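Proteins fold reproducibly. Next comes a concrete instance:

***
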Amino acid sequence: MNQQNVLVTAGASGIGYATVKRFLEAGARVAVCDIDQQKLDEVKGLHPQVITALVDVGNSQAIRAFVGDVVENLGGIDVVVNNAGIAGPTAAIEDIADDEWLPSFSVNIHSVFYMLREVVPLMKARGGGAIINISTGSTFTVPLNRSPYIASKWAVEGLTRAAARELGPANIRVNAIRPGIVDGERMRRVLTKIAVAQGTTVEALEAEALGYISMRTKIQPEEIGDMAVFLASAKAAHISGQMISVDGNMEWE
């Protein structure tokens, strides 16, 4: 990555931390924000060179302050990975309250817009950049009773396409990654909520889901990190406006 400056949201665990590690291995300088101070401290302990900050990405002023700190410390931003996201409620549409619906949009899509608004002028001044938004394979499979999550992630993909078209002349590439069933704590929490709602077990749900995947396998978080590094690299110089699935060929029927 030739000492490129990379910013990763929700980068202290799961896909985010796996992505941080992959960028560090590629030679990048990395800044991370998260809402979990303990996890941030762990990242800092393992990687003292990483800039860490406690940030609520649903707050536009917090995003602005974080980006300012990163620029002050690193001199600029070349790559952004918008990884922050929440699963939202698992419920029928008529049972979802306002205070359950709104956070999915605050974290999953508003944060992406806030980040773009701050970093785009910086990238234009540097002659270009790469933005990678983490979406979900659920925009394709559309599981039941996940309407806030799916709708907010479709918004992420819409913003990805719109930004790619608008920012292409400035040599800023914008893509989204659609992870499949990622092996980790977050996916297990999601499956647990769905299992409770459906009166089944996590194991049964996982077996059913894998049956719809051609390769019959879960995805490791590092695989998402690998794709992010590729999309940020010169090898992806003319890849923009794409929704790229890393899911083992998920075919929901």
Observations:
- Residues 182-218 form one domain.
- The chain is about 50% helix and 15% strand.
